[in-house]
Amino acid sequence: MQQSGVRIPTCSVAQACRAICQEERKMNKLNSSICVLIGCCLLGQTSLAQNVITDWAGIVQPAINNSSSPRPPASSEVLHATIQLAVYNAVIAIEGGFEPYGSPISAPHGADVRAAVATAAYRTARARVDPSQTGYLDSQYQTYLATIPNGQAKNDGIQVGESAATALLALRANDGFNNVVDYECSSNPPPPGEFEPNGGCGTQPVDAKVGQITPFTLVDPSCFRPGGPNPLTSRGYTRDFIETRDLGRATSTVRTAEQTDIAYFWSEHAYVHWNRNLIHLAISSGLHIRETARFFALVHTSAADALIAGFNAKYFFRAWRPRTAIPRADTDGNPDTDPDPSWTPLLSVNHPEYPSAHGFFSGALTEAVAKYFRTTKLTWTLSTSKDAVPQLIKTERTYYDLEAITRQIGDARVWSGLHWRHSMRDGDQIGREVADRVFENYFRPIHKHD
User: Fold this and answer.
1) What class does CATH assign to 27-174?
2) What is the pLDDT of residue 433?
3) Positions of CATH 1.10.606.20 in the chain
4) What pLDDT, in 10s, does the model give residues 91-131?
5) Using alpha carbons only, what angle is made at residue 60 by residues 288 and 181, rounded to the nearest 5 degrees?
6) For residues 23 and 395, what is the distance between their CA atoms, to the nearest angstrom?
7) CA spacing 20 to 30 A to 222: which of 29, 37, 96, 325?
């Protein structure tokens, strides 16, 4: 369903919708971090310091997902993308240089971009986060505005931000984000190959709604649906089964200590992990306000639409997890997959196995980063919170190629016992294709600028 005011190219424009949808085939320390973010506003904004975009990316994060109102990674990222698009439009209205998302909004000459961004982020977030978080946002917004000198520029910036938030929220008013989508097993117990929620049939997995949310840039998320899980009796399934069985077991004696630490490194809430590390990348790269706005819009929109397309595929295929498949291998019809009733994975998540969510989330994100910087050869030190993952030993890892990140994620999810290798590859491919399409059609320059 096309959104009014947003130019969404048809699926045929994007690689002929993967050959017409593949011939129809067949995404106590948080608060201290926020104080640091706000502090930069008091110290002034330089090319190698945080700016209003990175500030508010950090401020909204704990309002989107927190211990009192937790939200799964996929729906968290979709919500963050909504906020980031309002921020982007506010910046572009004032500074120009790139196509707006949807219809353009006007801005008086001299409007303060900091006031505009803070207002756009605040108003958009406040309308969509859990009501328990509105007080937190109110306080952060008032504190931030107090650092901006009063005057016409500030007032005009606030109005631009209000307009950006109002327009974006109207655009997304019927996007299905708040819909409740229930999951039902086809039988109890489900047949071999079918996903069963962590709590058993009759309980709900997470983010079943995400695949039905209106995408930001896609006409039909099923256009990116991959070919499906390997047949249970295939050689590919057997090979993946043995690898995950041996390396992904909670008590594996095959998996090394380093492999276990890598598995834990990639186990933090993916939205929180990626948002923090994108903020650090924007700051270390010296991106100015307009550059950061475009960078975040490109990356988060790519990731959000990849999550929508990927979860659409997840709940279409409804594929079982290794935690079910390995103990019940005597039911899969494959003589080469031996059951192990005592097998449990190192980690567990509560949604269908195929395709991998970390695959399409991280695949889209890293592809969008590569498109923005026009290279995969990027030095990026990523961090994972030990508070979130207490088993973790190494909290920082430095990568010199974005491809190395996605390769390691593929390994980590197998070593965690969460996925088959085939699911990682297909998930990554979804993410890359969505990000390529977003880059080619959105947030494009409209004239040369300094």
Assistant:
1) mainly alpha
2) 98
3) 195-450
4) 999 999 999 999 999 999 999 999 999 999 999 999 999 99
5) 125
6) 44
7) 325
